[in-house]
Design goal:
Elements: H1 2-28, H2 40-49, H3 70-77, E1 85-87, E2 107-113, E3 118-123, E4 133-135, H4 152-155, E5 156-157, E6 161-162, E7 174-182, H5 183-187, E8 197-198, H6 200-210, E9 219-223, H7 226-233, E10 242-243, H8 248-254, E11 258-261, H9 283-292, E12 295-298, H10 303-312, E13 316-321, E14 331-333, E15 337-339
Parallel strand pairs: 7-9, 8-10, 9-11, 11-12
Antiparallel strand pairs: 1-15, 2-3, 4-12, 4-14, 5-6, 7-13, 13-15
Amino acid sequence: MAQITNFKLLLASGLLLAGSLEISHVLAQSQPNGRPLATPTDYLRWRGELKNWGRWGANDEKGTSNLITASKIASAARLVKSGIVVSLARPVPQVSDPEVPPAGVFHRTTNAISDTNTTDNYQVSYHGLSVSHMDSFCHFFLDGTLYNGYKASENISPEAGCKKDSVMAWRDGIVTRGVIYDMPQLKGVDTIEPGTPITRADLEAWERKSGVKAGPGDIIFLYIGRWKRRVTSGPSPGVVAGYHPDVIPWIKERDVAFVGHDFNIDWSPRPGWGEAEKIPRNPVHQAVLNWMGVNIVENLDLEALAQTARRLKRYEFMITFAPIPVEGGTGSPVNPLAVF
């Protein structure tokens, strides 16, 4: 009888613990403003609701970069007040580490040294967690289809690369308004801990604090202090403080041209967002590049940008960069310049 009683007590304790864990999970899915965070079910619904396919015509390959008009560029230029220029590119990696696979090391090979000159070759696989780069829309596709409905089977080959949605759509460069979203300053910390999801509520709270709000054709730069933290704590290759999928409708509403970050843009790991829900490994990448035609620029070094913005108390600036015009390319290393 005592054994049965003990078993019932253990069972009840187990059920209570499971219930507590479930409640904790639900509470963890709520934002500070009380709005529930997005779920995988929401994400799957948004695939059909948030597309920009056809918005700029059947032949479009630029997506929301179409919103960087002549008047937008002129408006961005008027943000230049001090003539201060800040590079947002991280120096290219020279050695492999947990965040830099061997292919991600930037190889510079000196060919020859004569009496008067020398030349060299560059080689790098820039996608990943180390090199500052932009993506093109053909980098990600869904069900065999690229942004704006182009078929991957008809437009991507080993010989030609990407015939549609390649980096060549941005060969004339980007000049627009940039806005930094300074999460450490918002939360009163030095850096954001790896694995922290950055939600819509976080972005909107920063806008209220800074008085600056992203809009059509802008580039948002999410600063978490990645490189500052790496100096003291080392790399965190699989654990990223990045955008929670909850921000996807916000990105759609704001009509930004690029989503920027000092790490991979996708929050990782994502509890509750696994393969069982048929969610892709990088859900925010998939949503912006494939559904909405919003581009990405990531692995940026935003330390000097954050310091400059804080010192000037100015969180908007002119931003300019251009890809290497590689025919068929899925993206390019870049060196964005913020001008205050």
